[in-house]
Every structure is written in C-alpha cells, then in structure tokens.
Amino acid sequence: MRKLIIGGLMTAALMSGAQVAQAQNTINIGAIVPSSGPFAEWGRANTVTLKMLEKEVNDAGGVNGAKLNIVILDDAAKPAQAANNMRKLAGDDKVLAVAGPLTSSACEVTFPVANELKTVSTSQASSKPGVAKANRPWAFRNTIDEGILAKTSVPYFKKTFDAKSVAIIYDAKDAVSTSIATKIMPQVFADAGIKVINGDSPISFNTGDLDVSAQVTKLKSMSPDGIVIGADYSQAITVLREMKRQGLTKPVIGGTPLISSAILKAAPEIPVVAPATFYATMTTPKAKKFVADLQPLMRATAGLPKDIEPSMYDANIYETVSMYIDAVKKTGVTGKPDSLEADRTKIRDYMANLKGYEGFSGPIHFGEDGDAIKNFFIVQGQNGAWETKVTGCSAAGGSC
Fold it and tell me: pLDDT tens digits for 10-20?
C-alpha cells in the first residue's frame, strides 16, 4: 500500500510538472468575437480565420518553438459580455494580448477593462471616431476612423453620381452606424456642398428589423440624388431589398460596415460605395493566398453561407494576431506565468512603436490615438462585384 501511495504521488508530481512545462511552452492569445447575436456571421468567420492561423503557425513549428493557443470567446455583440470576456481572458486564461472585440459598442466598455488589467486589446472592426483614443495606452484598432474615410468616399460619390442631395437612414441600435449617420456623413456632405435633406431628423430602424417599408417610403418621398445607409451589411441588405421593391434605385454610400459580397446580391442594379482596407477579390499575392486558403474552410463551416467570402474583418483579425506573434518573436516574450506582466508590456510597446508591418493592403503602424495607419480603398459595388475606384492612406500626410 505504501508503495502504491508513493507511486501515485510521484505520478501526480510528474503530471503536474508536465502540465506546468506545457503551460510555459504555450503562447496564449485571446480573442473576443460575436459568434452569436446580430453579427454572428462575422464572429463565426473570425473564428474560422483564427483557427486557420493557429494551425498554420503550429504546423510551421510554433512561436519560438512554443505552441500557439488562441482562446476564443463569444460576446454576442453585447458590450457587458465583451467586458466580462476581457476579464476572463486576462485574469483566468492569462493571455498575453486580446484580438477584439468587434463592435464599437463593445469596445467602448471593454477597452477601459483592458487598461485596468494592462492587457492589449485590438479591435478588428470598430471605427467609431475616438474609441481607442479615449482608452490609451492599451487599446488599439486595426481599423481606420470612419471620419477619415468619409473625406475620400464622399467626394468620389459626388463626382461619380453628380449628387446634389442625399437622405439618411440608419440602424439606431449600433454605435458606429449611429455615428456615421448622425455625425460623420452630415458634416462631410455639408463640407462637400451637398444638401442633406433629413440631416436634422435622419430615418432610423433597429437591428433585426425585417420590415423597413415605411422608412424607405419616406426616403423615396424626399427625392434625393443618393442614399446614405448607416448600418452593417446584414441590416443594409434589408434596406436595399426594400429600395429595389419600391423602385428607389438611387446610389448608396456608407461606411466600412457595408463591405460584404452578400450586400451586392440584394439589389445588383443599385451602386454601393464604401471604404475598405481589404475585400475578397483583391489581386495582391498576399490577399489572393489568404482568400484561397480561408474561403474553402469558411464554406465548409456550419452556420456560414455556402457562398461566403473572407471579409475585411477576417483580414484585420488575422493581421492583429500575426502582429502579436511577431511581437513575441522579436521582443523576448517568454509566455511564462512569472513574466506575464512584463510580456504584456512588451507587446504593448511593440504595437505602439510598430513600423511598416506588411499587411494585406500594405505597411501598417499605429498612430498616437491607437488607430491603424494603413492604405484604404474606396470601392464601388455593382452587378455583384467590388471594384477599387480610389486608393488612399489614413496618415495625416496621405502617404503610408
């Protein structure tokens, strides 16, 4: 009996030691994505993207010989749940850094938690002005402020469609959509000499509404030259289908949340203009390989459309975690429990001082406000495909 007890204790000690060694030989990165709720398609696609990246890295030998482990949590696009996920990832899972959350609404409550816990959090989609800037130094966004993008997309829209007036419709439950429709676009259109017919009282609907016939009827009665849609693509599809049904085939403009191949199938005859830093039909070698590798995995995943294509937000989250991996390789991050605080600081400093990281649209670095400085494209979607019309950079001087 004594031998059995001693043997059992030795086995337990060896297992404990192996578990510690394994934990110390793992690079843990967290991710917050909306795998359920109104933006579930984006969240599920992000999950497929992250699992592909994890496999790519580990198949190639890991990170400095350590296994990459990406811990993915679902926030259902609920701000409070996103904040709780941040606490779990940083506190319980001891991750080195977090990719996400996706929405501006979630970032507004999660970024302060990131600062409290001194853990980098980088959004893959949030583009409401000032969200990262208000939560320095641990908050970053691998996205561009919608206000910067609108200053290029609106002049293109005006010139292309000879637009002298626009009317606005938006999703009142979404933070970035509300910002685009009630603050950003009215000001930029006014600066461009275009009349915003309902700038003082834009037409609204709520996330998940299936019937927007009354709202579109009001839009039509205003006889605008163009329509501003402040919404993510899944909600904008509902508006576009109703516009088509009512014969309101005026050109549409919006922000980055419109970018999806799915939106181009809702009303192919209606031209849609929006900004993007990535879209699935880009022709650069790096983008083409990313799409070729990822798209089959997405289309084989339950719960995603059979014709889905990688989105800008998949590209952004792939870039973000790749930056974290690069930080681990270049700054001496160990991933050991006793160096967690120092490791997190190294990743923060790497992100803040990053210069020329090669992303899908070109080099990336971050400004003092925590937002990415990178190339962007003003694209026009019509008859089922996006096409680049204008290329720019979010840097103050216009050069990346």
Answer: 444 433 333 33
